[in-house]
Design goal:
By secondary structure, the protein is an alpha+beta fold. The protein is built from nine helices and 15 strands. The strands form two sheets. Strands 9-10-11-14-13-12 form a six-stranded antiparallel barrel. It has a six-stranded antiparallel barrel with strand order 3-4-7-6-5-15. Helix 1 crosses helix 3. The chain starts with a helix and ends with a strand.
Amino acid sequence: MNEDVQILEMVERYLLGEMSPEERAQFEAIRALRPEVDQLVVEHGLFLRQVDEYGDRKSIKSFLHDTQHNLELSGDISTEQPKVRFMTDRYKRVFFVAASIAGLTALAISGIVSYFTPKGSTSEIALLKRELNLVKKTTLQTQHQVNNLSVVPAPADNRPVRPSDPGKFGGTGFLIDGRGYLVTSAHVVAKADSVYISNAKGEFYKTKLLHLNNETDIAILKIVDDRFTALSSLPYSLRTKKAELGEPIFTLGFPRTEIVYNEGYLSAKTGFNGDTTAYQVSIAANPGNSGGPIFNHNGEIIGVLSGKQTTAEGAVFTSLSKNILRAIDSLKTDSSNLSIHLPLHSSLRGVERVQQIKQIESCVFNVMSF
């Protein structure tokens, strides 16, 4: 318990710049290896910024000092200076005491925060799926009938066919394995009976939903169409490390039937209301961009475009690329036979942007839910 208090103290010293360069380097190495420490830094950083903003940090520190003094008198905590090197082996448990102190602090400022902070809700987020023109179906149609009505009969020469029904929702998806495994946003395909995709050439393929996570807004699809020709490799890769604030980004997507390019920058390392599973980016995004890949300048995917805030201008959110890895881990747990080969290296590093786009666009698809 005492060690957990020390960890929280280390986080605050790190955020306030009170660490020596050596301590800071050691702490940042630990933060990169342990997501729970990274999350604690993010959450505590948000808290400290709120306190600074309302001008009440001094009184809060006084409250914490008195609390610490009382805990020292009762013998519950020690004043011994914590060492960074002791942390690597001893913070595997949930930070119970850290959460307790955060709870005490939250009680102290709850009136201030409640008064000044706007209440967020899911209604403040506009999901960027594209609503398509619906064809009315009778309640007597079975799922099998809906699937059959979704495409016109294949021509004799086996050319790609276009679904005759425009579908319910549209979005964007991209390959993570050249053999036909794709990622898109969960909200694009969550209520679909069937899902089709088309590429920039207008070629259509049927897919199967393998995984869906509404919390991270990640879905994984598999192309189940004999006409699809597998790609030997993908030009981009997934970035698992945190992206940097202000880092330039770009995306390709289908807010219309034609593929569209947009560029911007990373504006916050967390999503809506401090969501640590997402980034906030400044980029043009419209209905149909949901599920689109967010690339850095090296052609590494840092996120999956999801939605934008309706009460703020230019606040767009993306699910972190590491959520894709978590989805794949879940799939492997459910099916030991599943084998997805993620691209490990980006061949787009140092390549001029127009050439990057030319190599990427064949891997990005228009997603249509029926």
